[in-house]
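Researcher: Next sequence.
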Amino acid sequence: MLEVFEIFRKYFENYYINQYLSSNNLKSIDIKSDGSCLFQAIIESTLPEKSLSHLTSSKIRSQVADHLIENEEQYLPFMELDSDKNETFESYIEKLRNSEIWGGHLEIISMAKILDLEITVVQWNGQKGTDVQRFVDEGRSESSNSYSGKCTILFYKHLSQSSHYNGAVPL
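Model: Next structure:
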């Protein structure tokens, strides 16, 4: 019975995300499910096109890790460290660098800052629609509201065995 509910969740998640894409003249870009889908989705969906094409997901992971280290006091209270496995800030950073963990909210915030991006994350809200979150460098001066790039990424919770990010670009 649980399997049937999961099939419905996949269907509705795809349906509502596709509705969002259609109403915003966007199309989805499939990103490989390799644990670095968030970072690759950012690279492949950033506009102007190819502005991040010189980067790799491992390079961005390294930049994000450096940013987190430089701003440990700001981010540490929001990190979900696994106390059962004695995970520390340092071990989290090492796993992030070595592609041993997936990226999430903190990594998106970091990428918005270090890459000077306006990042929009679209996901199914579990009901009849989508939630749209916008990530920008909150510490940036109010007078400079233009970012060097922007991107839309799609977060899927039910697409496959685990959570996944795809990119989105204009039609």
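Model: The longest strand covers residues 117-124. Residues 2-23 form the longest helix (22 residues).
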